[in-house]
UniProtKB/TrEMBL annotation:
InterPro entries: F-box_Sdz-33, Zygotic_Embryogenesis-Asso
Species per Swiss-Prot/TrEMBL record: Caenorhabditis brenneri (Nematode worm)
Name of this chain's protein: Sdz-33 F-box domain-containing protein
Sdz-33 F-box domain mapped to chain residues: 123-189
PANTHER family: CYCLIN-RELATED F-BOX FAMILY, F-BOX ASSOCIATED DOMAIN-CONTAINING PROTEIN-RELATED
């Protein structure tokens, strides 16, 4: 790699690497191999590995420490056909914004909101129709207003470390019953500060049916790798008759709130 004038200033260019490290992992073991050859391009190595493992896809790109040193246009050109991007602390807020601009045709986006300006996700990102949009980190604060939550247009929503009064989640559910967030198939909230009356606050004045913990229903969505077993929960209905199940799990000091919307294509036979 060398330093050159890339997108938005002087950046490292993706040229022929001196060596390539390959990690092949499974649930129980992993192997590491290092291949040295400084005459082969990044494009060649990528194609070579895809051919060896018979896997042409790029599942995701993870932007983390020092990623901002590299030319975003080079990265986009080489790995641009990925469907998922994860953005952690790259060291540069402007670079984080460039990632969101350059990779605009994603199915899944995971972003640590603390690395964005004022910890705010741009509205242009919220309104995109992702299969899954994942915000935050459980040990950090992820501030979000009710209006921002209502802007989200994704099928799957995960928010960790959510900083929002639980009574606003109650308001969100009531607005969903009236027709808002119509694309949402599932939603996971991970709060800190669990309290004994969390279920009362979240479900206040919302008519619901308590489902026995012995009952298990299978839920699927394009945003989930595997079907999810919904055990028990609280069933509610939207004004058009669509059913959803809410699970509220108090795991002190955290409380998890999950919502599953039972569209026809989300129902699996048990």
């Amino acid at each position: 790699m060398y330093w050159g004038m890339g997108a938005y200033g002087r950046k490292k260019k993706l040229t022929a690497p001196k060596s390539v490290k390959v990690i092949e992992s499974s649930f129980s073991d992993y192997t590491t191999s290092t291949w040295e050859n400084d005459t082969l391009t990044m494009q060649y190595w990528l194609k070579h590995l895809q051919d060896i493992f018979n896997y042409p896809r790029i599942d995701f790109i993870y932007f983390s420490n020092h990623s901002s040193q590299f030319d975003i246009d080079d990265i986009k050109e080489l790995f641009g056909n990925t469907t998922k991007v994860s953005i952690d602390d790259t060291g540069c807020n402007a670079f984080n914004q460039m990632i969101l601009q350059k990779f605009s045709s994603l199915k899944k986006l995971s972003i640590r909101t603390s690395i964005l300006a004022n910890s705010k996700t741009p509205e242009s990102t919220l309104i995109q129709n992702f299969d899954e949009l994942h915000f935050g980190y459980i040990l950090e604060r992820t501030p979000m207003t009710l209006d921002e939550l209502l802007l989200i247009n994704s099928k799957g929503i995960r928010i960790e470390g959510l900083q929002m009064p639980k009574k606003l989640l109650n308001s969100f559910i009531k607005l969903w019953q009236k027709g808002s967030s119509s694309h949402m198939e599932y939603l996971y909230f991970f709060f800190s500060g669990a309290e004994e009356n969390d279920e009362y606050i979240v479900m206040k004045e919302i008519q619901h049916e308590v489902i026995s913990d012995n009952r298990r229903r299978m839920f699927k969505s394009v945003g989930l790798k595997e079907p999810y077993t919904v055990t028990g929960g609280l069933d509610i209905y939207r004004m058009d008759g669509t059913k959803a199940t809410i699970q509220i799990e108090n795991k002190h000091p955290f409380v998890n709130v999950k919502i599953f919307v039972w569209f026809d294509h989300c129902i699996m036979e048990s």
